Amino acid sequence: MRLDQITIIPIFPLWLIGLLFALGVAAVVIQYRLIRKKLGNLRAAGLSLLRLLALSLLISFALNPSIITKEEHKVPPAVAVILDTSKSMGLPGTGGKGSRLDEAKAHLLDQQGAFLKSLSEQCEVKLYALGDSLRVLEAGELASLKAGGKRGDLIEALKELKGKNALVLLLSDGDMKWEDVGSTDLPVIALPVGDPGGYRDILIKAVKAPAIAFRGREVVIDVTVKGYGYAGLTLPVLLKDGSKLLTARSVRLDGSPSETTVSLPFTMEEIGQRHLSVSIPSQVGESLATNNTVDLSLKIMKDKIRILMVSGSPSMSYRFMRAALKNDPSIDLLSFVILRTPSDIINVPLQEQSLIPFPVETLFTKELRTFDLLIFDNLASHLYLNPNYYDSIRDFVRGGGGFAMIGGPHLLDQGKYVGTSIGEILPIRLTGKDDYRRNPPSGVKLSRAGRVHPITRFSSAETGGKEDRLGFWREMPDLDGMNLLTLKSSATVLLEGTDGDAAPILTVGGYGKGRVLVLATDYSWKWYMGMVAKEKGNSAYLRLLERMIRWLTKDPSLDPVQITLPERIGGIREEIEIRIKSTEEDVSGTAKGGVSISVFTPDGTKMGSRLKPTGQPGEYLGSFVPEKAGIYRLRIETQTGFLEESILVPGALEGQDAMPDHNRLRTVSASTGGKFLSRNDDLLKEVGNYAGKVNNRFLEEKRFSVWNSLSLLILIIACLSVEWYYRRRWGLV
Q1: Hey, is 170 helix, strand or coil?
Q2: Residues 142-153, buried b or exposed e (16+ Cβ, 10 A)?
């Protein structure tokens, strides 16, 4: 034991310990002088020295002396073995025998795990799987390990392993996230799997498309196609809406690898959320076929509402309605007014007539589907349209178009609609005659349904500050003429006369995907002029006409339940939120509750979802977490019905390029100070060489308190006992 191995940690200040020692020495000297006359110098000195020794040992307790011993230990280096388990590792490995993951496991489990056993004798080995995240593997899991999941993030994995390991052995095909961020102080030895030379695949690498497009306007989608092993091949790129082919273009792959971009122009005529797909045919020998198709969602909106209006005469109703529609910038109006009938005799050659002919065939066989709304204004249509055109109108409404009929003497065309397709779609029963009544004038009032219907449910701001909706409509000028109608059971009356019969004036209904409206008067223009005469403005007429148009063309802002989809749809396992607003009211104007949401997976199975109020009246926030890509169907149910919408959850393009990227592994090894191995390298030797460079040692320091020694305690007791014994023997006690 050397002096440098002894340390003291005083429990009292040194000056106090020194003072106590001095006092003890002084007490011993005084004792010596007092007993030397009786015992003699030799005996007195012996007793004094024993007492001084015991006192010194007791006082030295305050110095708290300790003995420190140090011992050096050598620790085997920790090696982290990482197996890439991303989706690409499930593709065929080198030579087509098994998957890439099987190839990686073979390096570790060859000869009954000889490599891992030998490496464990030199190092502390820890197994990890890198996929969605880095997770620890037990030795028994290795043989049954499967590939799947997202690309692993090697940077985050190295951050997690840094400080705990001296070396990383990475077995991968290189398809992982990596950015060169400088030295990581953790060398990576990379062992590649997969065969870049034998890999063959064609994939859609990127799709650039707008989120919103306008009906009737050309849209262009740019598609980037990449190929491996198919040099010189020309193949088509297809754009489809469901099973309907929208457009197609051909691309040529000049080399291997080869990358080219093609533009796909197309025009959509149907509005709404459209789920499109871009695809290329699978080729013989492709390693991966799931990356040949990409789904995308495109919202088709109306640039303007297209209306075709045909009037039987240039009446006041026609003039006011046409002027209001023309002044609305959101409406594209094509109107025709009949100034003469085919039976009129005009002694003027056709080429000299200034009136243009009514293009019936073009409008009702070719162009009708391009419109959103068809209006017949007091039209004796049998003079111009044959029954085949009625079928076209029925199909137009069934497919989602709107149809409105404005009243007058020719509203029902003298019973000519009986048994036709027009009679099928109307919400009124046809009696075979026009029952038109002029005088006495009739007022108008809201029906029970009209109080809550979006066409006639005006806010207080729209009624000039009036909270009483019923009173607002009672102030409307009387109508001098109206059609007396018989309703179907499916009809909904919004406005009715104030006479005893409560004759329906404004009636709505539905047919197929479309909507139908009948306004049973040709004097609605009085709601314009009459209110102006009362100095109350023309807003009531304009607002009613606007609401009628918007409801017939299914403007979503008028729906009692509105769904707002997120601008950006997240990917798989990312929460998707849907905002729901309900404006449903009962006849008393009280808001209705009871909103629920159901979400169905692409295969039609109902899945879990959540719905919670946002704190705003009638607003809710629905959410769900998709587990796979595809079209998810939403069903929002209320007390009066339901609304359905669909959301496309796209598959990630990232990770679809499954070409073994051994150059990335070379970069990883070089930037971390490791090494890129070939299949012919001795794996155990290379790992052992790198592990041997790591000098992991630590110094163990042990501290032993002197006062924990039993022998020292015995020595103190012995000194005091011997001193006491001789004092008694020599007659001092």
Answers
A1: strand
A2: beebebebbbbb
559-649 CATH: 2.60.40.10
Query: CA–CA distance from 591 to each of 452, 564, 619 (Å)?
Result: 10, 20, 12
The SS3 of residue 565 is coil
What residue spans define the domains of the chain? 3-72+702-729, 78-112+121-198+658-692, 201-292, 305-340+355-557, 559-649
Task: Indicate whether 730 pLDDT > 80.
Answer: no
Q: Give the Cα separation of 602 and 649 in Å (integer).
A: 10
Spatial distance between the Cα atoms of 693 and 12, rounded to a whole number of angstroms: 49
What DSSP line would sit under 502-552, residue for residue? --EEEEEEEETTEEEEEE--S-TTHHHHHHHHTTS-SHHHHHHHHHHHHHH
Give the pLDDT band of residue 707 (cuts 50, 70, 90): low
How far apart, in Å, do the first and last CA atoms of the chain sit? 41
Q: Do the domains at 201-292 and 559-649 have one common CATH topology? A: yes
Write the CA distances from 382 to 335, 338, 348, integer angstroms: 18, 13, 25
Does position 697 have pLDDT exceeding 50, yes or no? Answer: yes
Where does residue 276 rank: exposed (0-12), middle (13-18), buried (19+ CB within 10 A)? buried
Question: What is the DSSP track for 393-419?
Answer: HHHHHHTT-EEEEE-STTTTGGGTTTT
pLDDT confidence of residue 62? 72
- CA distances 631 to 75, 587, 650, Å, are 56, 37, 8
**Domain 78-112+121-198+658-692 maps to which CATH number in 3.20.20.20, 3.30.70.100, 3.30.365.10, 3.40.50.410?**
3.40.50.410
The third-level CATH classification (topology) of the domain covering 305-340+355-557 is Rossmann fold (3.40.50)
At the top level of CATH, which class does the domain 201-292 belong to?
mainly beta
Beta bridge partners of 487: 428
Sign of torsion over alpha carbons 664, 667, 673, 679? positive
Is the Cβ–Cβ distance between 152 and 177 less than 8 Å? Answer: yes
Instruction: Pick 251 or 712 by higher pLDDT.
Output: 251
DSSP label of 433: S
Three-state DSSP class for residue 177 = strand
% of the chain residues with pLDDT over 90? 25
Cα of 265 vs its chain's centroid, Å = 28
Closest by CA position to 79, among listed 135, 136, 130, 123: 123
Mean pLDDT for 142-157 is 85
Q: Is 672 exposed, middle or buried (0-12, 13-18, 19+ CB in 10 A)?
A: buried
Cα angle 186, 192, 193; round to 5: 140
Closest-CA residue to 266 (of 307, 315, 216, 301): 216
